[in-house]
Amino acid sequence: MKKINKEFGMHNFELDDHAIDAMIQEAMTDDLLVIPEDFADKMEIKAKQINLYRFWKNEFLKHAALFGGAILMPLIALGIFYYYEPKSLNGIVSFLDQFKWILLAGIIMFFAIQLADSWVGKKLRLNS
Amino acid sequence: MEENQLIDQIIGGNTNAFRFLVKKYERLVFHIAGRMIDQQADIEDVCQDVFIKVYKKLPEFRRESKLSTWIGTIAYRVAIDFIRKRGIPLQDLESLNTYNSSSLIDKKDPEEIKTQAERIEIVKTLIADLPAIYKTVLSLYHIDELSYKEIEEITQMPEGTLKSYLHRARQLLKTQLLKHRVLVEEWI
Fold first, then answer.
1. What architecture is domain B1-88?
2. Which residues 161-180 on chain B approach chain A with CB closer than 8 angstroms?
């Protein structure tokens, strides 16, 4: 591989790609970067923190939705009653009777959305 | 543990499985970040960001590619973002205009370079002086032994560009080695 031109004191090499690759590999392998020994432990602690954060975020959202629903629904009911001002029990019954199909459709839609939401969520988790 | 099983466990919140994943891929992530960033503390910060992203985004992993390639892609992007935030122009990462052989080599008398360790030191210095993208591609190809397709996926560079980077890096090293008359016959 090496030819020495003694007259000029120069070294001339026929370096092919394989030779260069071997050099690069050896030099870079030797030059392995410093990975802290406790790096994986640190990352596990971070993962636990993320889990904890996720848990409280989900709990907060769940409770906020329940609390919001608990406040909102009676408010809507009160608003409707306030608007129609039923004078007696008969008035309430006739009011409910008047809107029974809308109420029924609303309840069915509510459950249908819940079901569709769970189904899509499950499907996404399976596909990911 | 099988890869899909590992992913499922991590998505389910198993932090021990995540620890296993970190151990498995930390070398790859440190290689990518380490070739692009100089300071050890910054490298560690970037690698932490990478694994946090991996943990958070794992449910979105579509399992169409290898997990190592996906993690490598995140590592490469996070490292690029870090460099961008530091205000370093991205052209500097691949520009060879500023490339010159290290002063350490210039000071060396070629006749003094006799031991293998000295030769390795010379090549290491020459590689360290290469632009970040060259170093990253060299590291992924030679050390992590990834295929062109995998490197292409990680860096989003076409195969032709990757081959050209590898070729130019080889040529540069060759020129520098010949220029400095480093004895290399023992490697060959």
1. Orthogonal Bundle (1.10)
2. 169-170, 173-174, 177-178
Where b means 16+ CB within 10 Å and e means fewer, B30-61 reads bbbbbbbbeeeebbbebbbbbbbebbeebeeb
Q: In whole angstroms, what is the distance from residue A121 CA to residue A114 CA? A: 11
- What average pLDDT does the structure give for chain B? 83
Q: Is the ipTM of this complex over 0.95?
A: no
Q: What is the pLDDT of residue A6?
A: 39
Using an 8 Å Cβ cutoff, are B137 and B165 in contact?
yes
| Cα–Cα distance measured from residue B35 to residue B31, given in angstroms and rounded to the nearest whole number | 6
Size of interface A-B (CB pairs under 8 A): 118
What are φ and ψ of residue A5, in 5° steps?
-95, 95
CB-nearest to A19 from B48, B61, B187 is: B187
**pLDDT value for B16:** 94
Q: Are B71 and B28 in contact (CB under 8 A)?
A: yes
* pTM (two decimals): 0.71
Q: Do B139 and A28 touch (CB under 8 A)?
A: yes
Residue with tokens 């023992």: B186
- In chain B, where the domains are located: 1-88, 93-188
Closest residue to B183, CB basis, from A11, A51, A125:
A11
Topology of B93-188 in CATH?
Answer: Arc Repressor Mutant, subunit A (1.10.10)
Per-residue pLDDT tens over the stretch B11-25: 999 999 999 999 999
Q: Using 50, 70 and 90 to split pLDDT, how confident is the model at A99? A: confident
